[in-house]
Every structure is written in C-alpha cells, then in structure tokens.
Design goal:
The protein has about 100 residues and is mostly helical. It has helices at about 5-10, 15-25, 35-60, 65-70, 75-95. Helix content is about 65%, strand content about 0%. The N and C termini lie far apart (about 30 Å).
Length: about 100
C-alpha cells in the first residue's frame, strides 16, 4: 500500500513541481507548504506516514537530520521541518530530480 503522504504529494503537485522540490527543497516556498498553519495541518493529517519516512531516513543515514531534531521544543517549527524534509524525500523518490516535457 502506498504511503498516504506520497499519494497526497502526487495528487497536489505536477511532476515538474515535484522535481523543483527535489532539486531546490521547500525553503524557497512551495504552494500549500509555506505557512506554519499549512504544514501543521499536513503534519497532523499524515503524522504516521511522515514518521515512517523519517524512520526510513534514519535507517539509511544513521540519525535524524539536525534541522528536524533542533526543532523538538516548538511544535509548529518541528511540524514544518518534518513536512519539508519528507516532501523533499518523496519528491526525490518520485522524480529522481528529473524534469519532464509537459505540454499545456
């Protein structure tokens, strides 16, 4: 069964938008994931799936990213960091950072 957060990403962003996320991250501004209210909502809806993605990251790398663990004291910034890193990982998995020629 596909991760619900990954399905949400595919449903809400085009392939090339996902490639932008994979190549440039979320910190430059990604529609729907800019404000803490948005990322908190996403976190609350997909917390289980997000933590599965983080666990996979930890298994592969050996620890959690500092910019996530540094935010453990404040929910809004922690949720934002988790959503962003997971979005970046999912976007990379889906696109491998490659763009497609989309026609209008």
């Amino acid at each position: 069964m596909e991760n619900e957060f990954k399905a949400w990403m595919k449903d809400n962003y085009s392939h090339n938008e996902l490639a932008d996320i994979a190549n440039h991250g979320c910190s430059g501004g990604v529609g729907g994931m800019i404000y803490y209210t948005q990322t908190e909502s996403i976190y609350k809806k997909y917390a289980h799936e997000l933590h599965e993605i983080l666990a996979e990251y930890k298994d592969n790398v050996g620890n959690f990213p500092d910019y996530v663990t540094d935010e453990l004291g404040l929910f809004s910034s922690f949720a934002n960091a988790v959503v962003w890193i997971c979005a970046e990982m999912v976007a990379q998995e889906i696109t491998q950072g490659e763009y497609t020629c989309e026609t209008a």
